[in-house]
Design the sequence.
């Protein structure tokens, strides 16, 4: 019997769309904050066949926003628990849960071909770029999503609209001068970064890249040992405190006095005894001016830990935490000292950095931060907002309906063509695993789908959500400008030599191929006058599976015989743009009845060649040979060099392109941007773990606004 909810849904959608929803199969990638909201939405929106993939397990920190999980689920796979939780209120829905990395071979093109639409709720640019490349190869619409704090966005990708790689990546790195971190901090972030470097210096592997590396010898001199030569940790901690927050600050103050800096008050030296005396007779904590501080974080035993973490420690408490962290490290974890790296999951490390940064903030008249704030800054965490996740997941669901409307139009068009005997497949043979009956590219450019941008509302803005029409792909996009070819062979036991000779050189007519898989060459064309030892590198007798290829993998094929002259660069000193394309390789025993045991499902489509630069005039006035089309450098008789694998085109190459281009900040995850600290004397450049600030204005489509959920 149809439930009341189903009846309302059918009435709202109409019979046709409702029926298409019921027979749709969806893939949800990610079961975190957005993933939980999205899975719930999809089930309530009428979808009955869903696969969900996530490689993570549930952590206690997820429970405040990932509502499908409870405390007793901690440590269990997110995808499995999400499936079980949904089954409790929608038992008829078929949900297949997978624990694994979306970039594993089992989740390649063959797997993606089963679904009508893919919905992303990922937490890193590399995985998003990979899913983008697979959806392009399999012609599956993709609905992207992401949140960071109160901001978020949804993008519809596929068909005749721009893909993930089409977006121009904007660099949002912050820069801080080295002298600011070392001598003149004026923001809490400066002090937190200084404290992280101090942690690495004291407990990690010392190296010259550490901003405080010159202090290593001075800190060593503060060590205090007993008569047996054993380090007395608490005495050592006291000496370190007085050096860093009193002696060094006194020296800094003298330098500032000499510089006559009238724009800021001089720093305040702080001894350990002075820090411990900053209380009154009632135990209330005092600030530097002697007045009771309203930000005291003294808590009762019954205060919840989450609330206590968000209170700002007093100077007195910071001193206690600082001494306690050093003492604990040397007394209880002495065997780890010298190998540690800062981790936001290590409570002692966070205590140390929080205490040290706040003590330095006190020195320089900077507002102190709570332990929770310091952990967020040091770990580059963007706080997750459950309502933001809910809004973004809702926008994904609305766009999903509109995508399916376009799928229905395409299917009806193909049915009409089939009835008239004019079926047009764009050279693509239907695949046995394809969920959709149609084989033509879906048109989304004029659909009701909208890219949506969720922004922090204020009184000056009239809209919380900004929508924009979908845009056409960039003509020079490395990912979608030339859709991959598609080849089906009987199995992956073909030898590399036979595959290259029969399929690549024979059927695809690539005269001088260089073939890459995962950015590694598996076949390099050799010329007649070259030595035969290249056969050993090519391994022509090795099977495709033995070389690591699998059913549904993507290879990158270049033709050394066909190239266009381009402006030479450091990456391409020869100035040659080789004709190249990606190719999806499927294995299907049913093609054994085909001639030679393979089938070309889709021929290669080459992107337009770049404009040919004007050849420079030779010194003698003759035309140089650099513009002549030839596969070899005839001047020295050596091969002209292999082309680099096209970034963003093969399954792993596209991931590299996304990582290089940058991404965003994960919901509860980490920023993919580091800050660069620049030595204003021009001597050094240092990496700093300061959170990047996503730029997201009205109508912006920059990739740093695309942020992701964990």
Sequence:
């Amino acid at each position: 019997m149809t439930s009341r909810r189903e009846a309302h849904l059918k009435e709202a959608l109409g019979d046709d769309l409702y029926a298409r929803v019921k027979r749709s199969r969806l893939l949800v990638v990610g079961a975190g904050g957005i993933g939980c909201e999205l899975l719930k939405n999809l089930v309530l929106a009428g979808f009955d066949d869903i696969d969900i993939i996530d490689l993570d397990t549930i952590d206690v920190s997820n429970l405040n926003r990932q509502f499908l999980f409870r405390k007793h689920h901690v440590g269990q796979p997110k995808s499995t628990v999400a499936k079980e939780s949904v089954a409790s209120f929608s038992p008829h829905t078929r949900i297949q849960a997978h624990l694994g990395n979306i970039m594993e071979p089992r989740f390649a093109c063959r797997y993606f071909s089963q679904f009508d639409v893919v919905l992303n709720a990922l937490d890193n640019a590399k995985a998003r770029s990979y899913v983008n490349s697979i959806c392009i190869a399999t012609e599956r619409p993709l609905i992207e999503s992401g949140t960071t704090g109160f901001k978020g966005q949804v993008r519809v990708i596929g068909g005749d609209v721009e893909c993930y790689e089409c977006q121009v990546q904007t660099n949002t790195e912050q820069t801080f001068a080295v002298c600011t971190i070392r001598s003149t901090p004026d923001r809490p972030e400066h002090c937190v970064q200084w404290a992280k470097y101090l942690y690495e210096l004291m407990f990690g592997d010392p190296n010259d890249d550490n901003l405080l590396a010159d202090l290593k010898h001075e800190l060593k001199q503060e060590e205090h040992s007993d008569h047996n030569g054993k380090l007395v940790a608490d005495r050592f901690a006291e000496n370190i405190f007085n050096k860093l927050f009193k002696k060094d600050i006194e020296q800094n103050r003298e330098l500032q006095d000499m510089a006559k800096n009238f724009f800021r008050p001089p720093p305040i030296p702080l001894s350990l005894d002075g820090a411990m005396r900053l209380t009154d007779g009632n135990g209330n904590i005092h600030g530097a001016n002697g007045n009771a501080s309203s930000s005291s974080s003294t808590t009762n035993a019954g205060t919840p830990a989450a609330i206590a973490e968000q209170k700002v420690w007093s100077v007195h408490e910071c001193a206690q935490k600082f001494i306690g962290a050093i003492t604990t490290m040397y007394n209880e974890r002495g065997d780890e000292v010298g190998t540690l790296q800062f981790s936001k999951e290590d409570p002692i490390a966070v205590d140390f950095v929080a205490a040290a940064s706040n003590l330095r903030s006190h020195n320089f008249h900077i507002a102190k931060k709570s332990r929770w704030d310091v952990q967020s800054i040091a770990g580059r965490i963007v706080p997750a907002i459950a309502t933001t996740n809910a809004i973004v997941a809702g926008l994904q669901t609305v766009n999903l309906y509109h995508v399916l409307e376009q799928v229905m139009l395409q299917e009806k068009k193909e049915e009409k063509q089939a009835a008239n005997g004019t079926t047009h497949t764009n050279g693509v043979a239907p695949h046995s695993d394809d969920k959709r009956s149609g084989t033509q590219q879906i048109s989304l450019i004029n659909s009701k789908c909208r890219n949506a941008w969720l922004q922090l509302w204020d009184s000056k803005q009239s809209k919380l959500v900004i929508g924009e029409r979908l845009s056409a792909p960039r003509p020079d996009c490395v990912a979608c400008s030339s859709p991959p070819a598609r080849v089906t062979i009987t199995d992956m036991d073909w030898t590399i030599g036979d595959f290259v000779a029969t399929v690549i050189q024979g059927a695809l007519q690539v005269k001088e191929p260089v073939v890459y898989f995962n950015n590694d060459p598996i076949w390099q064309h050799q010329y007649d006058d070259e030595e035969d030892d290249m056969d050993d590198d090519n391994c022509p007798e090795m099977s495709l599976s033995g070389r690591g290829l699998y059913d549904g993998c993507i290879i990158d094929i270049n033709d050394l015989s066909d190239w266009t002259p381009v402006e030479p660069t450091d990456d391409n000193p020869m100035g040659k743009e080789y004709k190249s394309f990606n190719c999806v390789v499927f294995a299907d025993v049913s093609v054994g009845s085909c001639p030679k045991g393979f089938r070309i499902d889709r021929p290669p489509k080459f992107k337009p060649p770049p404009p040919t630069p004007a050849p420079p005039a030779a010194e003698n006035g003759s035309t140089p040979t650099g513009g002549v089309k030839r596969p070899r450098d005839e001047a020295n008789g050596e091969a002209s060099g292999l082309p680099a694998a096209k970034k963003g085109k093969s399954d792993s190459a596209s991931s590299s392109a996304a990582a290089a281009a940058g991404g965003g900040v994960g919901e509860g995850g980490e920023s993919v941007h580091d800050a660069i600290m620049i030595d204003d004397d021009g001597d050094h450049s240092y990496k700093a773990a300061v959170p990047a600030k996503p730029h997201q204005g009205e109508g912006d489509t920059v990739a740093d606004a695309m942020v992701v959920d964990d």
